[in-house]
Amino acid sequence: MAPTRPPVEWPGLAGTGERRFSLLIIGDVGIEVRASLPDVRFAELHADHLSYAPTRAMVAGTAVNLARRATRHFRRVGVLAKVGDDDFTPVIRGELRRLGVADHLRVEAGAPNGVAVMLRDRPCGGGPGSRLLVVQDEPPGRRLTGPEVRAAAGVIGGADVLAADGYSLLSPVSRAALHAAARTARDAGTPVAFDLVPHDVDARLPPDAVLPMLGLADLVISEAPTLARLLGRPAPVAAHEVRELLPALDRAVAGRPLWLLRFGATSLERTIAYRREGAPLEYPTGYGDGVERVGFGDRLAAAELYWWLSSPSAAA
């Protein structure tokens, strides 16, 4: 069953005074350019447009984004990822050192690093604005291989938890590597946490390319509508609709993962924690008006991973 005290109350989203546990993250690493457009909505653009706005380039990607937040909770954090071999590679390694994150990067000789561009338009009606994320097709992370993962078996086995995400499912090569990492972790007794992204994965992959990974995980984080669509069900919004989804998850996925199901107006406001044969626990995530959305999901996930490992009833 899930712990009775939600992670937003303890350990809290800001971090913890006593950092514990070792976390190894498999995911994307690259360079991201971010900007928010203060003067335009995407729907209003009908011609070329020039905006002056705060813009920054940073080392990012799913693995780095989570690692950056996880250092506030975990004693040791490491990243296992495949990167390119260009002028950005030392920048990426330098940022991991600055964060205090162990570098387990695999470098693909001669390949460029992945680059993403994230634009957010002017807020409308009090909302955060729409996000446009453009990601380089076929970044190096899609070519992380099973042998490269198995070569890191000692690092995986030495971690208290292995965290991975669904972007690795988008390529058959990295999907096989992800499965190899999960099986290596399970053989070593290392719990596996899996974040089911992208949130439209159901439109990108058939269920049989996704569900096997969910069966290998000990904890699954997902927006409830994503899982519902993957199972061919209507997307839930209210809590009772999310609870009606739980028996379908039990039927579709083997094992007893702890599900952390996000839902609400933007699928981020509340979570139901549930494990087969246990009582669901519902809690607010802390997200709402005035809260910066960028990075919030990683802050929440880092706190939840620490909370989960700290509770014998949750990790069992």
Automatic annotation (TrEMBL):
Coiled coil: none
InterPro entries for the chain: PfkB_dom, Ribokinase-like
Lineage: superkingdom: Bacteria
Gene3D superfamilies, sorted: 3.40.1190.20
Keywords per UniProt: Kinase, Transferase
Pfam families for this protein: PfkB
GO molecular function: kinase activity
Domain Carbohydrate kinase PfkB per the UniProt entry, residue ranges: 59-248
Record-given protein name: Sugar/nucleoside kinase (Ribokinase family)
Source organism of this protein record: Actinomadura livida
